[in-house]
Design brief:
- By secondary structure, the protein is mostly helical.
- It is globular.
- It starts with a strand and ends in a 25-residue tail after the last helix.
- A hairpin with a 5-residue loop joins β1 and β2.
- The protein contains nine helices and three strands; from the N terminus they run ββααααβααααα.
Length: about 260
């Protein structure tokens, strides 16, 4: 299965966007790096396979994972996400270390993280998907990678899903991820259905990125913003009001005496 960006004509191509002038919460991405070319993606694919771990990501899964991290308001660094990419985030997934290989992998992943975040910022996001021999896109592993990043900060994503206009924004991604299930009787989507899910997924990711934009710009999260709003909305205790500590005395002669 080949890999590549899904361009307007469905042909795989290298990512066209990469810049450091943006607000991204992937804090240590390579902001001065060039976008990955086809040969870079091939090398990334080989290096991930060389990890020899069933828990390590493939390129398509990695792209979805980084896309969700770039959308979310929580800041992350390489020490947060590289163990997940390399399959070293669980005791059962300890791929052996190789300093030279790991350094090369880290550099490629961080380059791609920056370019992907820049593409989202420029409203030019195109996912890196796997394609079969007939040129048909898959999208399942991409969706799994995206949802793995969602699980790293569930509170912000739950806050988004609680919003009326965003309650179904993960439906297409979850439907694509579910196509990897081998449950008896499960029906695989047709080519047209899969491509429709991918098209919807691309639009949904752009909407997600836009939803979290003010939180990224403010350096906060929906939960933190909600707590701050609740605190601001609480009425101020007057000096002649009863003290909120429950003493029965007026605030000005109790906790407000200072």
């Amino acid at each position: 299965m080949g890999i590549g960006n899904r361009g307007p004509d469905g042909v795989a191509s290298a990512a066209p966007w990469c810049t450091g002038n943006m607000r991204t919460m992937i804090l240590d991405a390579n902001t001065d790096a060039l976008p990955l070319a086809d040969e870079d993606f091939d090398r990334l694919d080989r290096l991930l396979a060389d990890l020899g771990s069933d828990d390590a990501m493939i390129v398509e899964e990695l792209d979805g994972f980084l896309a969700a991290l770039a959308c979310a308001p929580e800041p992350v660094t390489a020490s947060d996400y590289l163990p997940v990419v390399f399959g070293r985030d669980t005791p059962s997934g300890q791929a052996p270390a190789d300093p030279a290989r790991d350094a090369a992998l880290s550099s490629l992943v961080r380059r791609h993280a920056d370019c992907l975040a820049a593409a989202l910022q420029a409203d030019a996001f195109v996912p890196v998907l796997g394609y079969d021999e007939q040129g048909r896109p898959d999208g399942s592993a991409w969706a799994v990678g995206f949802l793995r990043a969602v699980e790293m900060a569930p509170e912000s994503w739950e806050a988004m899903l609680e919003e009326k206009d965003f309650g179904d924004v993960l439906d297409a991604i979850e439907a694509l991820a579910a196509t990897l299930d081998d449950e008896p009787g499960a029906r695989a989507p047709s080519r047209r259905e899969r491509e429709a899910l991918i098209d919807r997924m691309i639009g949904d990711v752009s909407d997600i990125h836009e939803f979290f934009r003010p939180f990224r710009q403010a350096g906060t999260t929906p939960r933190a913003m909600r707590v701050q709003t609740v605190r601001r909305d609480q009425p101020k205790t007057g000096r002649n009001d009863l003290c909120p500590c429950g003493s029965g005395r007026k605030y000005k002669v109790c906790c407000g005496a200072g």
